[in-house]
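[stage:ingest] chain + small molecule (magnesium ion)
[stage:ingest] validated
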Amino acid sequence: MEAFETRILPVNDESLAEAAGLLAHGELVAFATETVYGLGGDATNDTAVARIFEVKDRPTFNPLICHFPSGAAAAGKVHFDERARSLAAAFWPGPLTLVLSRLHACRVSLLCSAGLDTLAVRVPAQESARRLLTLLGRPIAAPSANRSGNISPTAAAHVAEELNGRIGLILDDGPCPVGLESTVVDLSGETARLLRPGGVPTDAIEALIGPLEKPEERGPLLSPGQLASHYAPHHPLRLDASTVSGEEALLAFGGEPLTGAKMTLNLSPAGDLVEAAANLYAFLRALDSMDIEAIAAMPVPEQGLGRAINDRLRRAAVPRQGDAHTETGEMDTRRLGSLS
Ligand code: TXA
Ligand code: MG
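[stage:predict] done
[stage:export] tokens:
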């Protein structure tokens, strides 16, 4: 598949126009959002959406997030209820994804919904992403621009590591300011459910629409094969480290990093969770590429964005299980209905 080099172009009028042209012809383009880089395709083009799964080597058709330039555009495709309106008003554009029932007239590819009668919709805040959406004039389906089982890319160079030779173009808009995927909330039923913690803290959502049912409240998964698995680094990842050895790399947090590691990267010396989230994936990736025995991660407070960071770290710490893994931030959707 890697017969050519993927081009990386900085965002400007010309490259945005070229990207929109490629998308309009069913090609895929990687682009920055405020959360992570997305692997985008025209959401109304079945072939383009199918290519997304192919390029990612996704073992299953997990449903994809559909990106829109405005809340009004998104609201035209799904049953946009009062709860959705209130969350959209507060957090869009921004790192929040809403799972809602599709309208009958919805022309978004069914493959985006992977067999469910719901669609995940989001209005990204990144200006270049919104310009691309406006230029294309159609919604863009985009999972994170990594191969299945790998970590989400937060810089154009990460996308190139993942997808070089598999797509024509990466639009480089610098490092992603949030650095962690969007929060996914399922509003398709009466009970609002948190499917994935992410860039918008759960408490801020609950303050507007009341308590969310959490993944851990949904009881045991139906079968081990449905275990929401994870990105796993190639090296073992040890959580809640209070000591570190000279053969380990340290993922530190806060003003008093442990000493003695072979190499240390500090998510946020100031203890700032937003800064830590923005650094998380790039630092895990950098440490994993070192000649070490393991990665030790210092504890991160379980509050605000810290919850999403810890969720990703816990998933990354579960060893890879053959090909059974899915990637970070994918959880629980298979319990919502049949995806086959
Ligand atoms: O921040 C983000 O959300 C990034 C950027 C590119 O927007 N995208 C992203 O996409 O993380 P992806 O495909 O890597 O993760 C999407 C998550 C998955 O857990 C998927 O299962 C869930 O959203 N999802 C998508 N559509 C769904 C649906 N109809 N019902 C339930 N879950 C859905
Ligand atoms: Mg992903």
